[in-house]
UniProtKB/TrEMBL annotation:
Record EC number: 1.1.1.271
Domain NAD-dependent epimerase/dehydratase positions: 7-238
Enzyme class of the recorded protein, top EC level: oxidoreductase
Name of the protein in its database record: GDP-L-fucose synthase
Site-annotated residues for Important for catalytic activity: S108, C110
Organism of derivation: Trinickia terrae
Family annotation (Pfam families): Epimerase
HAMAP family in the record: GDP_fucose_synth (MF_00956)
Active site per database record: Y137 (proton donor/acceptor)
Pathway: Nucleotide-sugar biosynthesis; GDP-L-fucose biosynthesis via de novo pathway; GDP-L-fucose from GDP-alpha-D-mannose: step 2/2
Chain's role: Catalyzes the two-step NADP-dependent conversion of GDP-4-dehydro-6-deoxy-D-mannose to GDP-fucose, involving an epimerase and a reductase reaction.
Reactions mediated catalytically: GDP-beta-L-fucose + NADP(+) = GDP-4-dehydro-alpha-D-rhamnose + NADPH + H(+)
């Protein structure tokens, strides 16, 4: 791909968008177009159309979305379905109208049925019912990938959909009510260690299995797709192995150095029992993830602890 291509990264301040911006800048892409939420509200159709007419990007990376963990999804389903549908229809349609050649849409592994055979192949999409704790979000993401497919069919565009597994890394959300499990466990373990607590509470039974991908690996996969001139399709992006939430909590506990006990709050939902992606479609093309889970968590924890330290240092001593 031309290093001078004008690439619009929608959602460049989020975890995925900021990783894309780092990845592309590090590999010599010089014309990255970005807008903050305050500058451009992607749920506003007229504003999005004006932006595309004025900027005329050649490539769009659609990483803007309302995202959240199991609690946020279950308690605000209307926000998750409405905002994601609005962003997708506005951006994809405006991109097509402005003659955007290529677009990468980012979804999520929760688009697949709850009772899917594991590992999950792309073909299992829409073969049975969704996990109810996040079906509103999943329906919006399925609509996004169907928009890409439909525009390719009808208008000959080259819009690709990537479905990453659970992500973690820089710029993640550490708010315990809306975060995903990995940042939540990092925060809980850190605070439990600092406070000298006897226990760390993990939601659910600890039995569900999840797969975790460092967001820099997703950004690398995206660059691979762009540079290989992949023009259409749906691609799972993951590491190919999973672990239980209990094992994940033990791993975080070890890395953070929390000496207490892990306890399980079974009044909280488990969600889908397992979510492991089959990543052979991308692997056969020559891409695989590079960042191991332990290394990735260690790096993420260092960043988190450094940010917490800096925050504490900024606060007046007698606040
Ligand atoms: P999911 O992958 O869509 O289910 O989303 P999450 O990352 O929010 O949750 C994954 C699993 O981790 C679920 O079984 C949760 O119940 C479990 N979990 C354990 N402790 C926590 C926590 O503190 N926060 C979150 N979000 N999930 C937790």
């Amino acid at each position: 791909m031309d290093k001078n291509a004008r690439i619009y990264i929608a959602g460049h301040r989020g975890m995925v968008g900021s990783a894309l911006a780092r990845q592309l800048a590090a590999h010599g892409y010089r014309q990255l177009v970005t807008r903050t939420h305050a500058e451009l509200d992607l749920t506003n159709q007229a504003a999005v159309e004006r932006f595309f007419e004025a900027e005329k990007p050649q490539v769009v990376l659609l990483a803007a979305a309302r995202v959240g963990g199991i609690f946020a999804n279950a308690s605000q389903p209307a926000s998750f379905i409405y905002e994601n549908l609005a962003i997708e229809t506005n951006v994809i349609h405006a991109a097509y109208r402005a003659g955007v050649e290529r677009l990468v849409f980012f979804g999520s592994s929760c688009i697949y049925p709850k009772a899917c055979p594991q590992p999950i192949r792309e073909e299992y999409l829409l073969t049975s019912a969704l996990e109810p704790t996040n079906d509103a979000y999943a329906i919006a993401k399925i609509a996004g990938l169907k928009l890409c497919e439909s525009y390719n069919k009808q208008y000959g565009t080259k819009y690709v959909a990537l479905m990453p597994t659970n992500l973690y890394g820089p710029n993640d959300n550490y708010d315990l009510k809306s975060s995903h499990v990995l940042p939540a466990l990092i925060r809980k373990a850190h605070e439990a260690k600092v406070n000298g607590d006897a226990t760390l509470t993990v939601w659910g039974t600890g039995a569900p299995r999840r797969e975790f991908l460092h967001v820099d690996d997703l950004a690398a996969a995206t660059r691979f797709i762009l540079e290989r001139d992949v023009m259409e399709g749906l691609f799972n992006v993951g590491v190919g192995t999973d672990l239980s939430i209990r094992e994940l909590a033990q791993c975080v506990q070890r890395i953070v150095g929390f000496a207490g006990e892990i306890v399980f709050d079974t009044s909280k939902p488990d969600g889908t029992p397992q979510k492991l992606l089959d990543v052979s479609r991308l692997r056969e093309m020559g891409w695989h993830a590079q960042i191991g889970l332990e290394d990735g968590i260690r790096q993420t924890y260092q960043d988190y602890a450094a940010a917490r330290g800096a925050q504490a240092a900024r606060q007046p001593a007698h606040a």
